[in-house]
């Protein structure tokens, strides 16, 4: 039975909703107007508007090309995986019948290669579906290997006749480093297949649609999980690389190359002398050589900040390659290499490979791009400056040709 206080509360709630609706519409309209004005001002700027519109057009064309390519890959991957799943199910159902011993032998050997570090030290004998295993094996691997062989379709019984060893010791068949390649589930791999990404995206959208019926704390938790999975699907990167947590020096990979009309001997001084970087790269504010291949760098960061880090050379080959990394504990952790490859006729290919971990992983990389600090674009600009300087010095040192 409803009391008199309940209708009053209901009327009060209705009044609040009526009062809030126009305010929300006004705020939404104002926000949309501000965003539209910012976009128009960005694209129609008298000085740089034309360049920005061309860049937006190129990025839109690139995104469209990637979308069409992704759809083509998905349309090829999805049917193949479907046929594979059907063939696997048919294989499991038919495997209960008798299997030829030669086929069963190959199946057992393939399975041992996934769970045993030295599979060639194990001998396999098959007779009428009965598998006898002899040879040598480490004791830490025998139970896992036995279960794997027992699950092979067509195996009726497994007889263990091998010799187990706690350590390899002097056993010839157990010598040398080796690591079994165990099967990894699809969703635990670093790179997901197009079909797996589509499946996770559909499940994420379904769960997000059902969160409205859940209590508020559970709804927030479910939507947070859906957001994380959506980022995983879009970027196709492990979560540790997206967030930068426990990813070491590799969260974002950068790579670019350029062909320069100069010999490696003329380019090498520009690449190997870090003090010249301040003249070639405007973002490099200071470089101090600390000795023993160590150096201290100060570079311009996003929003007018300065980023400081130390670097240590890990490899140096004259006129060919320089590799470096940051010591542990650096805020701007990264690793990189510069390679010079002769192309003939006085030309050299300069290739730069870098992997770095910004403050918040791939999210920090995306924020830096929004702030106008795109590492890929800056790397390309630095290579173009290196090309200009190297070819200018090459032309200056070239002997003049006397004209008759």
List key phrases describing it:
404 residues; four-stranded mixed sheet; 11 helices; extended
**CA-to-CA gap between the ends?**
115 Å
Strand sequence of the main sheet, in spatial order?
5-11-10-9-8-7-6
List how many beta strands DSSP finds. Answer: 11
Count the DSSP helices.
11
Biggest sheet record: 7 strands, antiparallel
**Percent range of helical residues:** 40-55%
Average pLDDT for all residues: 80
Q: Give start-end ranges of low-pLDDT stretches.
A: 11-19, 400-404
Globally, the shape reads: extended
User: Which oligomeric state applies?
Assistant: single chain
- Residues in β-strands, percent: 15-25%
SSE layout:
Layout: H1 5-43, H2 49-94, H3 101-115, E1 122-127, E2 130-138, H4 139-150, E3 157-160, E4 163-165, H5 194-210, H6 216-235, H7 239-243, E5 252-260, H8 264-272, H9 277-280, E6 284-291, E7 294-300, E8 306-317, E9 321-325, E10 333-344, E11 347-357, H10 361-370, H11 375-397
Parallel strand pairs: 2-3, 2-4
Antiparallel strand pairs: 1-2, 5-11, 6-7, 7-8, 8-9, 9-10, 10-11
Helix pairs in contact: 3-4, 5-6
């Amino acid at each position: 039975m409803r009391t008199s206080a309940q209708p009053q509360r209901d009327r009060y709630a209705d009044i609040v909703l009526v009062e809030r609706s126009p305010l929300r519409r006004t705020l939404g309209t104002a926000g949309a107007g501000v965003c539209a004005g910012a976009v128009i001002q960005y694209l129609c700027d008298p000085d740089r508007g034309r360049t920005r519109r061309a860049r937006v057009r190129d990025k839109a064309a690139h995104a469209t090309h990637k979308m069409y390519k992704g759809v083509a890959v998905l349309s090829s991957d999805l049917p193949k995986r479907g046929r594979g799943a059907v063939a696997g199910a048919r294989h499991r159902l038919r495997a209960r019948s008798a299997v030829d011993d030669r086929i069963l032998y190959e199946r057992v050997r393939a399975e041992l290669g996934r769970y045993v570090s030295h599979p060639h030290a194990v001998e396999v004998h098959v007779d009428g579906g009965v598998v006898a295993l002899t040879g040598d094996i480490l004791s830490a691997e025998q139970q896992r290997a036995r279960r794997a062989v027992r699950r092979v379709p067509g195996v009726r019984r497994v007889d263990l006749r091998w010799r187990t060893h706690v350590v390899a010791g002097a056993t010839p068949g157990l010598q040398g480093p080796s690591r079994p390649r165990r099967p990894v589930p699809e969703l635990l791999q670093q790179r997901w297949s197009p079909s797996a990404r589509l499946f996770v995206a559909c499940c994420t959208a379904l769960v997000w649609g059902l969160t409205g019926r859940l209590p508020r704390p559970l709804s927030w938790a479910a939507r947070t999980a859906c957001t994380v999975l959506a980022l995983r699907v879009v970027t196709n990167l492990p979560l540790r690389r997206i967030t930068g947590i426990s990813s070491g020096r590799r969260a974002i990979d950068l790579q670019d190359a350029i062909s320069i009309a100069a010999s490696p001997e003329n380019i090498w001084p520009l690449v190997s002398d870090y003090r010249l970087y301040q003249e070639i790269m405007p973002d490099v504010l200071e470089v101090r050589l600390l000795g023993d291949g160590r150096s201290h760098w100060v570079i311009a960061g996003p929003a007018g900040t300065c980023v400081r880090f130390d670097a240590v050379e890990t490899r140096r080959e004259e006129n060919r390659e320089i590799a470096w990394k940051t010591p542990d504990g650096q805020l701007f952790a990264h690793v990189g290499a510069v390679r010079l490859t002769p192309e003939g006729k006085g030309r050299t290919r300069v290739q730069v490979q870098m992997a770095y971990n910004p403050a918040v992983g791939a999210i920090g990389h995306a924020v830096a791009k929004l702030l106008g600090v795109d590492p890929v674009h800056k790397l390309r600009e630095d290579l173009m400056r290196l090309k200009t300087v190297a070819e200018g010095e090459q032309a200056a040192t070239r002997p003049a040709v006397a004209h008759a």
